[in-house]
Write a structure and sequence with these properties.
The structure holds two protein chains of two kinds. Chain A is an all-alpha fold. Chain A has 24 helices and two strands. Chain A folds into two domains: 264 residues, MetI-like (MetI-like fold), CATH 1.10.3720.10; 251 residues, MetI-like fold, CATH 1.10.3720. In chain A, helix 1 packs across helix 16, helix 4 packs across helix 7 and helix 23 runs antiparallel to helix 24. Chain A is globular. The two termini of chain A are 33 Å apart. In chain B, the strands form four sheets. Chain B has a six-stranded mixed beta sheet, sandwiched between helices. A five-stranded antiparallel beta sheet of chain B has the order 13-12-11-14-20. Chain B has a five-stranded antiparallel beta sheet with strand order 15-19-16-17-18, with no helix packed on it. In chain B, helix 2 packs across helix 3 and helix 3 crosses helix 4. The chains are: A mainly alpha, B alpha+beta.
Chain lengths: 578, 362
């Protein structure tokens, strides 16, 4: 060939001989990811199962029989279900009106409502629980005290150590699940569906109930089930509110089985019962989500008309303010107040002090270690979960490896594993191993990474779906290996999505309590465990100070991460597919 | 330099079970512009992706020159094939500038920076994008992005350039413009182009050779004129532009030629495909532009009736009824024929193709 003199023949690429290259970088990376997933999730789950049927008299279902017949365990199961059901119901009652207000009405101060939902989701539930104890514990609770002693209205007092109290505290954390799914669904319902009904003579309200509501119902049910699963998995609030009220749940019952002497077999059996409930709920939820698909692909940006609520909009706004006050203002204002007072009570403002902060930061030697541990753990766990999720997502979407769907499912298993169950499984597995991981930071890291792999996979999956495979293929044919293609094309393009996912893991990881509570040692103590332990020992005021420090750290971390991510965001340019 | 040889290549996607490509044999010679033509889903893109090495065939082999690149057990990865590929959706990397896009392949080949810059400038000049080096893809039009993709592929001087419907996302005017540019480019750099399209006009305009593929099987492989004028079967005739497919039967045959009766009316002598005996049912393919009409005062046994007329500017199109069959005819617009006229139909016998009859419904 002669390409016109000016073109000089370029150096050719290395040409391997014709054979299947059996040891390639991409295959090594993928194999490593599969092995990680097996170690993190599959093997611990297997040992949990084995542990539940291996009794002193050989293999049997004795532990399951005990879990089913023991009054204590049956009661715990029933309590968990009651808690989940009420929480699910109230999540709908709070989440749906707010979602509807945001996306379909002219309610004022929409940003405020959005922020309320986001903060409620981010706020660590065990801190809300502690705050409510300070306000509503039967005798010392400040609001109860105020009502009873100062105003003499006993009927306005509220005992937080009850199922009602537990539902209240839990709902404040779970209603955003329903809210978020409902908002997404409402926004994706094409306005033309509604306009079509209106043109046929249906009024606004009639349309809302007969067209819009059925279209978004699957999303709302789906959100309700997620709220259900999350509510029964929360260890912190169930321990803080439930234990003093003698309301045992599955989480707290499993926890108490680790009091000396630990009953591993029974804990494993109970864990499997727990898994059965969450997996069943999530299975139904996936069914609903699958049905939702007809909503999502609407026309081109035809925006729904907003319903003019007239003066009723102030009622809806008032409701949002109420949610904000109960979920955010009351707990955090009271925590700040407690943290600054010498002795918490009605007259706390007479003796303000910073001594509590000084105590927890400098005299209580656990705090600094816990902060460092939590920061390390959350950073590493978020990074590892995202990395693992990316490789697994890539295998699923870009290869034809047999069994890749199975891999996908394996990575989603932890969604159905409450934190405390994950901890039980890891203890079972690693106690049987020759490596002594129990009580180290490593086992906590394994627990966190395993727990959050589904979030990593979800982030990677949705990002990868948005970039066309030909963008990678065109790099390959130009001579780029798999590794170079990942570095030069794929990762830069999915980075924003991965970063958002990273943050979504980091935030819950830094306040993780449910799994940490069984896995920590004095060396590997984490922030949430430090708060819980201090609370257990009865230091009301220092606990509040530590809680506030906890919140400040979370906020700073989010702020910092957002700033770092924001800079990258600005570098990145919208990918506009041709 | 290298040609591509496909021998007995088959590929089945596991889900469907139907083969996407079935026993495909194709010899693409060095330096040619070869088009894989067929309707969507016929397996032409699968063929291209097999040549590129994005997947391995289930059976058969693919050689580039003398070198085996694909078989059931052998797969040279795309990055080791020294090919280029231009995709239907351009696949220009949105996070890289035009320069970064084009220079990518040169960097992988460790071309020194100054040489690389020179190469990029030449490639961009070749596609008419000089001065666009620092633009980002989202600042470019579709046609410009497509040219970036082209420059990115040719700058590394591949031996073979694969093009997967590269013009189908462009508007009609731009498509025509790019079509002639592509042809000129291929002449200038002289490498093998393997081009996939479903647009027969594009294939006819661009190719040295056209491979017509239908339902995973190669139907015909030959130069554009041959494929257009001498389709080997009804499928090819039907796919290559407007055609009248009429039923007829053989009246007499000497093995190579014979007298035939078309649509029960038109009697003519035609070359017959091998193995067709007197009395056999046949299909006759006749291009509308090869038919002439003459107005008759009185209808005869061999005449037809004009039942529809469309004026298209540069041509006039008529529908002529012959018993229960219709004939489409294109003439010069000056022809003085009106609706309802009886017309005499004539055509040169060598513009007609005869096939053994196949039931179109199958």
């Amino acid at each position: 060939m002669n390409s016109g003199g000016a073109n000089v023949r370029r150096p050719a690429l290395a040409r391997p001989t014709a054979r299947l290259e059996w040891l390639r970088f991409d295959q090594v990376v993928m194999a490593a990811a599969v092995i990680c997933l097996v170690i993190l999730v599959v093997l611990p789950l297997c040992s949990l199962f084995i542990g539940s049927i291996r009794t002193p008299d050989g293999l049997s279902f004795a532990f399951f029989r005990e879990a089913a017949s023991g009054r204590l365990y049956r009661q715990a199961l029933i309590n968990s279900l009651i808690l989940g059901a009420w929480t699910g119901l109230f999540s709908v009652l709070i989440g749906v009106p707010l979602a509807w207000a945001i996306s379909r009405t002219n309610v004022p101060a929409k940003p405020f409502i959005r922020v309320t939902a986001t903060l409620s989701y981010l706020s660590p539930p065990f801190l809300t629980a502690i705050a409510f104890v300070n306000l509503f514990s039967p005798n010392a609770g400040v609001i109860n005290h105020l009502m009873r002693e100062e105003f003499g209205v006993t009927w306005l007092t509220f005992n937080i150590f009850s199922m009602k109290g537990l539902v209240l505290v839990t709902v404040l954390h779970t209603f955003p699940f329903v809210y978020l799914l409902a908002v997404t669904a409402l926004q994706s319902v094409d306005a033309s569906y509604e306009e079509a009904a209106e043109i046929l003579g249906a009024g606004k309200w009639r349309t809302a109930f007969s067209i819009t509501a059925p279209l978004v119902a699957p999303a709302i049910l789906s959100g309700t089930l997620i709220a259900f699963v999350n509510s029964i998995a929360l260890f912190g609030s169930q321990a803080i509110i439930g234990l003093p009220g003698r309301i045992f749940t599955l989480s707290t019952r499993i926890y108490s089985l680790f009091d000396y002497p630990p009953q591993y077999g029974l804990a494993s059996a109970l864990s499997l019962v727990f898994i059965f409930i969450t997996v069943a709920a999530l299975f139904i939820q996936r069914r609903f989500l699958a049905r939702r698909s007809f909503v999502t692909f609407g026309g081109k940006g035809s925006r729904p008309q907003l319903i003019d609520l007239g003066s009723a909009r102030w009622g809806l706004f008032g409701f949002a303010v109420l949610v904000f006050v109960v979920a955010i203002l009351l707990p955090y204002a009271s925590l700040i107040a407690v943290s600054l007072s010498k002795s918490w009570g009605l007259a706390f403002w007479k003796n303000l002090t910073l001594a509590n902060y000084k105590f927890v930061l400098f005299d209580y030697d656990v705090t600094q270690r816990a902060i460092i541990n939590s920061l390390i753990l959350a950073t590493l766990a978020a990074t590892l979960s995202i990395a693992l999720g990316t490789v697994i997502g890539w295998i699923d979407l870009r290869t034809s490896v047999p069994g890749r769907r199975l891999l996908d499912y394996a990575a989603l298993i932890p969604l159905g594993l409450p934190g405390i169950v994950m901890a039980v499984a890891l203890i079972q597995f690693w106690l049987a191993m020759p490596i002594a991981l129990y009580g180290t930071l490593v086992i906590l890291l394994l627990a966190y990474t395993g727990r959050y792999v589904p979030l990593g996979l979800r982030a990677a999956n949705s990002s990868l779906r948005q970039i066309d495979p030909t963008l990678e293929e065109s790099a390959r044919i130009l001579g780029a290996s798999w590794g170079v293609t990942m570095r030069e094309v794929t990762l830069p393009l999915i980075r924003p999505g991965l970063f958002a996912g990273w943050l979504l893991i980091f935030v819950p990881a830094i306040q993780e309590l449910s799994a940490s509570i069984l896995l920590f040692s004095s060396k590997s103590i984490t922030l949430a465990v430090a708060v819980y332990n201090l609370y257990e020992t009865g230091y009301t005021e220092p606990v509040a100070a530590l809680a506030i420090i906890n919140v400040i750290i979370i906020s700073l971390a989010i702020l910092l991460a957002n700033r770092l991510g924001g800079e990258r965001e600005r570098e990145r340019l919208e990918y506009r597919p041709a | 330099m290298a040609g591509v040889t496909l021998s007995g290549v088959s590929k089945t996607y596991s889900q469907a079970g139907l083969p996407a490509i079935n026993d495909l044999n194709l010899e693409i010679r060095d330096g040619q512009f070869v088009t894989l033509l067929g309707p969507s889903g016929c397996g032409k893109t699968t063929t291209l992706r097999l040549i590129a090495g994005y997947m391995a065939p289930d059976a058969g082999t693919i050689h580039v020159g003398e070198r085996l690149v694909s078989s059931k057990d052998t797969l040279i990865l795309p990055e080791h094939r020294g090919m280029g590929m231009v995709f239907q959706n351009y696949a220009v990397w949105p996070h890289k500038t035009v320069f970064q896009n084009v220079v990518f392949g040169l960097k992988l080949r460790k071309v020194p920076a100054s040489k690389a810059r020179e190469g990029v400038e030449q490639a961009l000049a070749l596609v008419g994008l000089s001065g666009y080096e620092n633009r980002l893809p989202n600042e470019l039009s579709g046609g410009q992005q497509q040219r970036v993709a082209l420059a990115r592929s040719i700058v590394v001087e591949p031996e073979i350039l694969l093009l997967d419907e590269p013009l189908s996302n462009l508007d009609a005017k731009l498509r025509e413009h790019m079509r002639s540019e592509l042809k000129q480019l291929q002449r200038r750099i002289g490498i093998t182009f393997i081009y996939v399209t479903h647009d027969q006009a594009e294939a006819l305009a661009l190719s040295d050779q056209i491979a017509v593929i239908h339902e995973g099987c190669l139907q015909q492989f030959g130069p554009p004129r041959e494929v257009y004028n001498r389709p080997v079967n009804r499928t090819v005739a039907d796919f290559m532009g407007n055609v009248n497919l009429l039923e007829g039967k053989v009246l007499s045959s000497d093995g190579r030629k014979g007298e035939i009766l078309i649509a029960g009316r038109l009697r003519t002598v035609a070359a017959l495909p091998a193995g067709i005996q007197a009395g056999a049912a046949i299909d006759v393919a006749l291009r509308p532009e090869n038919i002439e009409l003459k107005r008759l005062e009185n209808a005869s046994a061999a005449s037809g009736t004009v039942v529809d007329h469309t004026f298209l500017g540069n041509i006039s199109e008529y529908q002529v009824a012959l018993d229960n069959q219709r004939l489409r005819v294109q003439t010069h617009p000056s022809a003085n024929i009106a609706l309802g006229d009886a017309v005499e139909i004539s055509f040169a016998p060598d513009t007609m193709s005869v096939f053994a009859h196949t039931d179109p419904a199958r």
